[in-house]
Fold:
Amino acid sequence: MTDQYAVIGNPIAQSKSPIIHGMFAQTSGQDMHYTRIEAPIGGFAAAVDAFRSAGGRGINVTAPFKLDAFAYASAHSPAAQLAGAVNALKFEGDIVKADNFDGLGLVRDVAGNLDFTIKGSRILLLGAGGAVRGALLPLREQGPAQLVIANRDLAKAQGLVQQHTGQVGCDMQSCSYSDLEGQQFDLVFNATSASLYAELPPVPVGVFAANALAYDLTYGKGLARQPQEGRQALAIGQIVGQGIGREYADRHW
Structure:
């Protein structure tokens, strides 16, 4: 019988997951069908219920449903529990197992594939959603000198920092985008949804240190609408990855 899997998000047409997992299935000899599900905002649970009823065995979760997936699951891996967000669900009868390997894939892509030394670096994370939640602990474990979370809703960024208070690791701070003026970083992660809409996050040009690495956690329509300031910032950094190496790295169900 053909195994049924999917990726769920909103929007979801940009997802390369059917291609990626189709290649995994070919390599492993698995009989599998993998599709995209665009659930309406507020309709995550109903969409997943319908997929399970139709025989779905597991589902990958992308923005904006990683917190919904955490709430939906009945059993959480340590990584999912620490992140409070989920990017993969496995269905075993009435049990829904949850995991989060966003951070694992991200660190392996940056440190391994891109040969970037995270230890001792100054890191800026733009956004405070599910992807950032999953990335924080694996990034901290690499020993950066500083990790700053910037977000439009400052309270969300502050909440994530407070959750990590007392843990061994780097200097960790939160701020609004306007507070970034005058600061510089070696590694800049865009974890906002800006790329999905061909936009740029509102950061000052000067946040990119010399030879900085800029990494977009979301692949989307590309940066078609680039104001002059945005072009300058992107010229200083190096846009790499477009999220493909991170999103479903190393594991599939």
Notes: The mean pLDDT is 83. The radius of gyration is 18 Å. Residues 11 and 38 are 6 Å apart (CA to CA). The chain is about 30% helix and 25% strand.
